[in-house]
Design goal:
With 219 residues, the protein is α+β, with helices and mostly antiparallel strands. 35% of the residues lie in helices and 22% in strands.
């Protein structure tokens, strides 16, 4: 019996090491986004009327075209000749980076290349908020400000401008979701120190807000 127990323990340990090695060896590749569809959409006044926060989501994944459109609406480049974006930022600092937490892993949105660049081959959605629903929402956006891009020295002013810039972006997401029948909610109930460690952010990077996006639950 003792030999059997010892064998079982060794078997479990060996397989745990093999499985861990397999996970560490996994890589996620960049995701080229589709050309955003910038025509169409619903009238602005109707979209404003229907804009709302939702905390109940379906688990169906967003098609790549929808994700591409969503990210362009959030903070994409709408004037290629100057690199200007769909949301304003003070002094055009463009301090906000959008990290995209999917089931497949964590990515960062590269607006210029129209691409998602891989950061972590790990599903970190559950860490993007303290609410239970965030673990299963198809997309969790994490708005991270790079304070090194903000050319003022006062810390409180950096906090102010980065919060305003993230707010503009989150409202763009709200409007796109209202136009396309998606559900969304912007959130600040996040264990930010823990998420910073998971995302391996630099000291000058600050998590400002997170935002969940998915399909509403059909009634």
């Amino acid at each position: 019996m003792e030999k059997l127990s010892s064998y079982i323990i060794r078997f479990v340990l060996i397989n745990s090491v093999i499985f861990s090695t397999f996970l560490l060896g996994q890589e996620i590749k960049p995701i080229p986004l589709m050309e955003p569809q910038t025509d169409g959409g619903r009238p602005l006044m109707q979209v404003l009327k229907e804009r709302q926060s939702t905390r109940e989501f379906g688990t169906e994944k967003l098609p790549l075209q929808v994700l591409s459109n969503l990210l362009w609406a959030a903070f994409g480049i709408n004037r290629p000749e100057s690199g200007m974006r769909t949301a304003p930022s003070a002094v055009n600092w463009q301090d906000i980076d959008i990290y995209v937490a999917l089931e497949e892993g964590l990515y960062i949105y590269d607006a210029e290349a129209n691409r998602l660049d891989p950061i972590l081959a790990e599903d970190i959605r559950a860490a993007t908020g303290i609410q239970a629903f965030v673990a299963d929402v198809p997309v969790n956006l994490i708005y991270v400000s790079d304070f090194s891009r903000i050319s003022i020295s006062e810390e409180d002013q950096k906090v102010f401008y980065s919060a305003a810039d993230a707010g503009f972006i989150s409202q763009n997401v709200y409007l796109y979701c209202a136009s396309e029948g998606l559900a969304t909610v912007v959130r600040n109930l996040v264990d930010k120190p823990a998420l910073v460690k998971i995302m391996k952010l630099r000291p000058e990077q600050r998590i400002i807000l997170t935002q969940s996006v998915g399909y509403p639950i059909e009634e």
